[in-house]
Design brief:
heterodimer, A: about 140 residues, mainly alpha, 2 domains, 2 strands, about 70% helix, about 5% strand, B: about 70 residues, 434 Repressor (Amino-terminal Domain), two-stranded antiparallel ribbon
Chain lengths: ~140, ~70
């Protein structure tokens, strides 16, 4: 891919993803962002510009994912990352659960026939559950 | 887990950075190992043993007796 994983390091204390570790990394970030600024900022967006923005966004997204997957990590980093991600997920699931419970309770109080729960919250929980099941099946078969 | 990494590394006049590079981990991991704060995988323990020119893992790593 375009960006090299060793130009970056794992973002530890300020969110997810990666942060530049070398000048090549900073240059890559600038080169990735610059087309958006040029295409969106210079003049009104027409259809051609919109298509170019979408194509560039796709390229950048695929490259970002590739960098994240291949970031240089040793076994200690992997363990720390896994524990941090697990803790983050527990909080996310807890907040989602509270949100769903709150929406269901609000619906019940207002005597709605079917409690109105945001489907995106349910889909998020279900997708997470699915990812966990698939991960466990894969890991059990792998080793 | 108790390690003698620092002892054997100093005997070879090797820096933490050099050892980290040889075994493919970060310097932070070597520091954690030397301070007995991190239990390495068997593979990493073997790599470190070899990098320190030792024959047996037990010479470098040992169980701490509480």
């Amino acid at each position: 891919m375009i960006g090299k994983p060793h130009w970056f390091k794992r973002r530890k204390y300020t969110g997810w993803g990666f942060t530049p570790a070398t000048w090549e990394g900073w240059l890559y970030i600038i080169v990735a962002i610059l087309p958006f600024v040029l295409l969106m900022g210079v003049s009104p967006i027409n259809q051609t510009r919109m298509i170019l923005i979408i194509i560039w966004a796709l390229i950048v997204c695929v490259d970002f994912v590739d960098i994240v997957i291949h970031l240089p990590k040793d076994e200690r980093d992997r363990i720390h990352e896994a524990i941090a991600e697990r803790n983050a997920l527990w909080i996310i699931v807890a907040v989602l659960g509270i949100g769903i419970a709150f929406q269901a309770a609000s619906g019940a109080v207002s005597h709605a026939l079917i409690p109105q729960v945001d489907p995106f919250l349910l889909v998020a929980l279900f997708a997470g559950l699915l990812a966990k099941i698939i991960s466990n099946i894969y890991l059990d078969k792998k080793d | 887990m108790e390690t003698k990494i620092a002892y054997y590394r100093n005997k070879l006049s090797m820096t933490q950075e050099e050892l980290a590079k040889i075994v493919g981990v970060t310097r932070q991991t070597i520091i954690s190992l030397e301070q007995n704060r991190y239990n390495p995988s068997l593979l990493l323990a073997y790599k470190i043993t070899r990098a320190l020119k030792m024959k047996y893992v037990e010479e470098v790593f040992g169980l701490s007796v509480a």
